[in-house]
Design a protein that fits this description.
Elements lengths: L8 E7 L5 E9 L6 E5 L4 E7 L4 H10 L1 H9 L12 E4 L2 E8 L5 E5 L2 E5 L5 H28 L6 E4 L6 E3 L5 E4 L7 H13 L8 H10 L3 H11 L20
Parallel strand pairs: 2-4, 6-8, 9-11
Antiparallel strand pairs: 1-2, 3-4, 5-6, 7-8, 10-11
Helix pairs in contact: 3-4, 4-5, 4-6
Bound molecules: zinc ion.
Amino acid sequence: MNGTKQPSERSVEIKLGSGKTTIIKIRRSSRARRLALRILPSTGQAELVLPRHVSEQEGVTFLHQKIKWLDQRLIKYLKPVPFKDGETVPFLGEPLIIFHLNSIRRDIYREKGRLIVTGPKVRLSKAIHGWYRREGGAEITSRVKEKSEMLGRKYGRLTIRDTKSRWGSCSSKGNLNFSWRVVMAPPYVLDYLVAHEVAHLAEMNHSARFWDIVESLTDELQRGRRWLRHNGHELHRYGVEPPTVKGRESE
Ligand SMILES: [Zn+2]
């Protein structure tokens, strides 16, 4: 395969941080001045452009430095699942079928594997986004309270957002931030994630001592981490085009 130096189309398979593998096209270009990596919008496939003076090996090394970027970009090309009548969406790890009922009254509730949404259809997506945020907020808040008491530390502000790159974070001031999307994951994942961020109230690092604290706050450390590594990126498929929220939201 490496014998010819002709302009050829090659590809390389690399493993992403999320545990999935992806095929990347390698294209040699005599016009390109530098290494470039891009996603082809038509196929959602990544392409690496190699200038004449750069070896394929250098290109592959470059790819490995870009795994995080690739992971985040390729997420966008997973088949999106909009919040629409008849679509199936996860909630605490269980599937819910969106069911719209035309009615003047605006309501949203779970019933026998369905997420029933009443009111005007044009508001459906917005209503479901709001519902996830509220439910997510409630599920997260109760766990944060429980675990911060277990740890004997106070937290500052707790915010729920649609973060793109992280499921949760803890600031040096003890403010906690979570993505509402985590409420789509099974409860044990939520348990681990909250334990992780609450543990940062005591240890602002990922030292052995930090992981000991996480373990003291949850029995789900391994299972939760594994689920996120394999399935976490999938959560970004749901409810595309979230309504934009201006400014900072807080509880
Ligand atoms: Zn952390």
